[in-house]
Design brief:
Blueprint lengths: L2 H14 L3 H21 L5 H24 L3 H15 L8 H15 L7 H12 L5 H14 L1
Helix pairs in contact: 1-2, 2-3, 2-4, 3-4, 5-6, 5-7, 6-7
């Protein structure tokens, strides 16, 4: 069963059980997948669906930050509920220690000397961590490791 089919099945169950927040989130996710399929003019594979889910997770996290700054606890709760639904479709996220270990291996593999090599390290590292770690966090860790060494 593809990831898209799994999302559709979960939507059916959520509709039957009248879980409104989950239904709204899954419908939005399926519409994003459909838009991507239209743009690509081909069905989305699991990797593309994971990319879309990751993009939506990132949007929710940014919204939560903005709503917290604006003291909108009602909207923070709504976004957090949507985030928890979306997170169930992503692979388990790596811990900071695991990202640091992977970044150190990438730095050694690339033979990086300083911050100017950050792009090469990121292009080596991100395919391995795709969907398992936030790119912003990986970039911060790589920058931190390069400035320390």
């Amino acid at each position: 069963m593809t990831l898209k089919n799994s999302i559709q099945e979960t939507l059916k169950k959520a509709l039957k059980q009248q879980r409104r927040a989950e239904v709204a989130t899954l419908r939005l996710l399926l519409s994003e997948i459909k838009n991507a399929e239209i743009a690509q003019q081909k069905p989305a594979d699991d990797n593309k669906v994971l990319d879309i889910v990751a993009k939506e997770v990132k949007r929710r996290r940014e919204s939560i930050e903005a709503f917290k700054r604006g003291n909108r606890s009602d909207l923070v709760a709504q976004e957090e509920a949507e985030l928890s639904v979306l997170m169930s479709y992503l692979p388990e996220q790596m811990s900071r220690e695991e990202i640091v270990a992977a970044a150190r291996q990438a730095i050694d593999a690339v033979g990086a000397k300083g911050l100017s090599d950050r792009g090469r390290i990121m292009s080596h590292l991100m395919p391995q961590l795709k969907g398992k770690a936030d790119g912003k966090e990986v970039n911060e860790i790589v920058t931190e490791l390069l400035t320390v060494s």
